[in-house]
Amino acid sequence: DTAVSQTPKYLVTQMGNDKSIKCEQNLGHDTMYWYKQDSKKFLKIMFSYNNKELIINETVPNRFSPKSPDKAHLNLHINSLELGDSAVYFCASSQDPDTGELFFGEGSRLTVL
Amino acid sequence: ILNVEQSPQSLHVQEGDSTNFTCSFPSSNFYALHWYRWETAKSPEALFVMTLNGDEKKKGRISATLNTKEGYSYLYIKGSQPEDSATYLCAFYNDYKLSFGAGTTVTVRA
């Protein structure tokens, strides 16, 4: 039973389209995150939600909009996709946002053509 | 953006040998230092979360030390095995977020 699950795992789409990536965690954690793995393989934080409330928005274009319907879900919606949005996106959760370890999903590879 | 640097970027180790590599991070406003292990085609998994200067943590053949005053942490692998091949990430926790280094990719040769 996967602790942090993301769907879809692979997504190929055209420039200009709108797409969503869903994330769900069954760990009972209060805090969820979206990270982007950039071209140099760095994991960079995009957003963090604690109990459905946005606490970090890390200079991400407005085309990216996270939505947290409840504390077990954090979805990422991307409008007007651009070539540069191609990356692997990782969802994660933690119990303690201060020192708690992150539990990562398996990643969603987005390719924009 | 916080500067978290890991060195070396990659290393090759003979099976049975021990190795270590470093993570440097800002020494001011320290809160926590995380180490993660990331195997190919999988997601990163936490190894250690370290919060106190002088902390040493161990999990099997892998251990880590922490020096918050000078801003570095070492990860040690004793008696490397092929299953230790992975990218090891460190991450500095500050201001509600983790800033990751680029990782050290370890390849253990049988």
Describe it:
The complex is a heterodimer of chains A (113) and B (110). By secondary structure, chain A is mostly beta strands. Chain A has strands at residues 4-7, 10-13, 19-25, 31-37, 43-50, 53-57, 64-70, 73-78, 87-94, 103-104, 108-112. In chain A, the strands form 2 sheets. In chain A, strands 2, 4, 5, 6, 9, 10 and 11 form a 7-stranded mixed beta sheet that branches. In chain A, strand 9 (87-94) and strand 10 form a beta hairpin. Chain A is globular and about 40 Å long. The radius of gyration of chain B is 13 Å and the shape is globular. Chain B is 0% helix and 56% strand. In chain B, strand 7 (62-67) and strand 8 form a beta hairpin. Chains A and B meet through strand 5 and strand 10 of A and strand 4, strand 5, strand 9 and strand 10 of B.
Summarize the structure.
The complex is a heterodimer of chains A (113) and B (110). With 113 residues, chain A is mainly β.
Features:
heterodimer; A: 113 residues; mainly beta; seven-stranded mixed sheet; four-stranded antiparallel sheet; 0% helix; globular; B: mainly beta; five-stranded antiparallel sheet; 11 strands
β-strand percent of chain A reads over 45%
Rough shape of chain A?
globular
> What is the tally of helical segments of chain B?
0
Low-pLDDT stretches of chain B are none
Assembly of the depicted chains: heterodimer
In helices, the fraction of residues of chain A equals under 10%
What is the overall number of helices of chain A?
Answer: 0
User: Beta-sheet strand percentage of chain B?
Assistant: over 45%
Number of distinct beta strands of chain A: 11
Global mean pLDDT of chain B: 94
Structural class of chain B: mainly beta
- The ordered string of helix (H) and strand (E) elements of chain A is EEEEEEEEEEE
Tell me about the largest β-sheet of chain B.
Answer: 6 strands, mixed
Rg calculated over all Cα atoms of chain B? 13 Å
Q: Span between N and C termini of chain B?
A: 39 Å
